[in-house]
Design a protein that fits this description.
Layout (H helix, E strand, L loop, with lengths): L2 E13 L4 E12 L2 E12 L10 H10 L1 H7 L4 E5 L5 E5 L3
Antiparallel strand pairs: 1-2, 2-3, 4-5
Length: about 100
Amino acid sequence: MALTKSVEVDKIEIVGEFKAVQVRTATVVSEDGTELSRSYHRHVIQAGGAYLIEDAEVQAVCAAVQPMLLSLTVPPPLLIRRQSNGNLDYRKLGT
């Protein structure tokens, strides 16, 4: 007579012109293998949004449909120096 609760991604959809990824998760409560309840939650990952905290399958879908946007959202590497007056000087590496 053990209750278990699991959360699983059960639907991934690509929506709209800008390829937003819509994710539906199901929270399932079971007792001895028999499902007692199921509830759903949806969230949307907009193009250019952070998805590295998502499930591996969701990350793969985001990378496939939004590949160029990832490179646009990663900032260029910076060289940070403290000037003699105490201010910080930020420069892109290679410039």
